[in-house]
Amino acid sequence: MKITSAKVIICAPSRNFVTLKIETDEGLTGIGDATLNGRELAVASYLTDHVIPCLIGRDPQQIEDIWQYLYKGAYWRRGPVTMSAIAGVDTALWDIKAKAANMPLYQLLGGKSRTGVMVYGHANGKDITQTVEEVLRYKEMGYKAIRAQSGVPGLEKVYGVGRGTMFYEPADADLPSEHDWSTEKYLRHTPELFEKVRAAVGPDIHLLHDAHHRLTPIEAARLGKDLEPFRLFWLEDTTPAENQESFRLIRQHTTTPLAVGEIFNTIWDCKDLIQNQLIDYIRTTVVHAGGITHLRRIADLAALYQVRTGSHGATDLSPVCMGAALNFDLWVPNFGIQEYMRHTDETDAVFPHAYSFKDGYMHPGEAPGHGVTIDEALAAKYPYKRAYLPVNRLQHDGTLTNW
Ligand code: GCO
Ligand code: MG
């Protein structure tokens, strides 16, 4: 088999997505997600200008060799742009291989390890009362795990509080909007939020929370400790993890389980966190961490240390990533949970998919490949529209801080 052509499809049905489509001389095609929120065109150019010319004529069945060729061969390793581009290729190649085998991708990976993939949804509110209502609504919809985020009194706009209830979308402006932040206000408010949420929802629902890299390690330690009585499933991204060592301080102080990794792109970003058992869940996912081929490597390392997977699944990860991730999740032995933020109907129409949700669990479906396709004619009706993630400034003096 040979790759005869490949192209990048950029479309914005509600939000921007970058999709790579690979075609072969045997008529089989595959697609991969290569979306990098707010930096989409950089990945598109990386693929079109630098990767696609090297793919033509290669055997698409040699997934490992092509992965190594793109990673080692570029000389310039790692980074979100490179790794999202490699992920796009890798996902499309696994799609082709599974279609050639006439199997859903999870079968090729080793078959299913569970009956379904537990997912968590996002309950967001402008205040505690509204967040509690949202959590109960998610419980009503069948979710077994729910992430709760709430506005903070005295702060204008806060991470995680959406414009609509079902479709939280952080890339909200043509140029970055500005949010304000106060760690003191947030740390006072959040334990009260979880006290109310836990009391309302009962003991059996898994609760999660995302601090979006806003705390220092000692502040994170304080939050973890304060949340212990409410038994969180995980506390996510408390502090930036460029310095993996910084999680040691948090770990020394709290038994609240820790998750991190949605912005990581290789195994090197999480090696120390995993080997030193400083985290409980690793959040790398297919599109930003080099595709199925590399994600599998991270998961295997994590398994040695009883760290479980908890892949990122926000709306900026396209349905193509979601389909691939669900196949991965159904197989991976050390699965923890999968994030699931629903896409809009417009997005779902452009990306018809075999996956489904029922009673808090998802299933990738039985279609050969990863089970997601793209309607190119429909995609063409939604041209790229520049959109950025916000930036964040300290409320008291305007210092730029982590968003
Ligand atoms: C999450 C995330 C996202 C990110 C987004 C950035 O946990 O789902 O933090 O909402 O902010 O993916 O592009
Ligand atoms: Mg997050």
From TrEMBL:
Catalytic activity line of the entry: D-mannonate = 2-dehydro-3-deoxy-D-gluconate + H2O
Top EC class, one word: lyase
InterPro entries documented for this protein: D-mannonate_dehydratase-like (IPR034589), DgoD-like (IPR034593), Enolase-like_C_sf (IPR036849), Enolase-like_N (IPR029017), Enolase_C-like (IPR029065), MAND (IPR034587), Mandel_Rmase/mucon_lact_enz_CS (IPR018110), Mandelate_racemase_C (IPR013342)
Gene Ontology molecular function, alphabetical: mannonate dehydratase activity
Top-level taxon in the UniProt lineage: Bacteria
EC number: 4.2.1.8
Necessary cofactors: Mg(2+)
Positions of the Mandelate racemase/muconate lactonizing enzyme C-terminal domain: 128-257
Associated pathway: Carbohydrate metabolism; pentose and glucuronate interconversion
Pfam families, per database record: MR_MLE_C (PF13378), MR_MLE_N (PF02746)
Keyword Magnesium found: yes
Keywords for the protein's UniProt record, in alphabetical order: Carbohydrate metabolism, Lyase, Magnesium, Metal-binding
Protein function: Catalyzes the dehydration of D-mannonate. Has no detectable activity with a panel of 70 other acid sugars (in vitro).
UniProt-listed PANTHER family: D-GALACTONATE DEHYDRATASE-RELATED, STARVATION-SENSING PROTEIN RSPA
Full protein name: mannonate dehydratase
Organism: Hydrogenophaga luteola
UniProt lineage: Bacteria, Pseudomonadati, Pseudomonadota, Betaproteobacteria, Burkholderiales
